[in-house]
Records
---
Amino acid sequence: MNKRLSAMIVTVFSLFVLSLSVSAQAVSELEEGTYSIDFLVVKAGENEQSMMNDYVEKPGTLTVRDGKAYVSFTLTDSKSITGFKVNQNGVLTDANVISQNEAANTRSVEFEVTSFAAPIEAWVSVYMNLPGFLYDADYDIRIQLDETSIRPATPSSPPPSAQPNGDVIVLHINSKAVTSNGAQHQLLAAPYVKSNRTLVPLRFISEHLGADVKWNGSERSVTVTVDGKTLVLHEGSQVIQVNGARHTIEAAPEIKQGTTFVPLRFISEQLGATVEWNQTQQRVTIRN
């Protein structure tokens, strides 16, 4: 009886190990390309759905390239999600931001996966400061990938922000080369990053979005007029005027090589443009 029981245990254990091996190999067996994949965000140590599941767009994207697999998806309410880390080789690591749309308040993150079998340990930090409501917390979560949902990605119409209508300006960090509606131009000074903020040339972007820009040398100020709105900025001051009313922006305008630079967020919030950020290519795309 004991021998039969032992044999059964060995058989069950062998099948269990074999099933894990098959799941672990599933990633490497996929052909290079792009797939859709469903997933669920659950609480750490539980199978109960996490609140974070309501702040992701589904399905996600599974990309296989150079023999490795990467999962990406979009975080909604990006400004409130101040941190997002994923377990990579036993270490919680910031997920790679592959694109960002400040106007839509979203960002897309990507991370490598080596197996679909086990949930992926992750961590999120959330800060919401609303009238009468303050939420400031960070907590562990798990991402459960649904291997059975994997399907080859099908071409789809680009989102409205990607349609070739209106003005499109493309810049790269630390590069003077820029394109506006497909035409190539050369900036006097390149966009740059300072204190984790991206600063871009105000005049070039404003004028190519149809605004009028005037410089007042005695006051060291810039006046931008567009769509019935008048903006007045002063070098070194975070306080700006919008149709005469005082507002504060996240960083003061700076002047480099005769060019006034402003935070990227200023372009979206004050000029009404859609701003997209590609971390991998260090590229800024501005659409009107």
---
Amino acid sequence: MNYLTIFGYDIDGDGQSERAFNEDAPFKAQLNPNSIKLTQTVSYTASNNDDATNSQIITQQKFGGVPAPTLTLELLLDGTGAIPSEGGDMSVSDRVKKFQETCFFYRGDKHETPYVKLLWNGNSLFKYNDHAYFARIKSFDVNYTLFSPEGDPLRAKINATFLGTMDTKTQAKIMDKQSPDLTHVVTVKAGDTLPMLCEKIYGARQMFHEVARVNNLLSFRYIKPGTELVFPPIK
């Protein structure tokens, strides 16, 4: 059976590089959740129509954005031996600590809590259309429900809420907006040059210095075909 698996990630820059720090030993659920609640919302702003009057029944709503979705799930942890698992004889306390290390504990070298990917049967629980993206822990509580005579926890439930988070490059791919004042992601083709691409997107070849800086390019004279470049909005 494929169990819900959580990988912890460190991400540098705005999605420029990512590394799973527990790839060889991710957190795995002993039992898959009975239910998962995914909440997605859309924000709108009321139209400021000069012709509007107080007699309007319903004001026009203009698209404002898509806030981060939230996902809530419950995980059962068992140390009685009643539930066989890949973790072997790992205690409930150790499983709770593993969850915290993956999702919650502060990463001193990164100065923040981890990014995570939640996978079930190889599929990400956070997807927009066909684009998988990261999440971060928002809150969790641990409810211990059974103890040994020595006071060690033998059973617990983790109720956790995660927030989706998406880097600029992934957002640009999904939105694919055609405007120089918005972020673009371009895959370099054979024969492309950075000044030529800047001319196409911005109408200004001289923007290549800024694009090279944003993408940490050591040289703009040759860029390997297949490279993805972020073209930031004109400010």
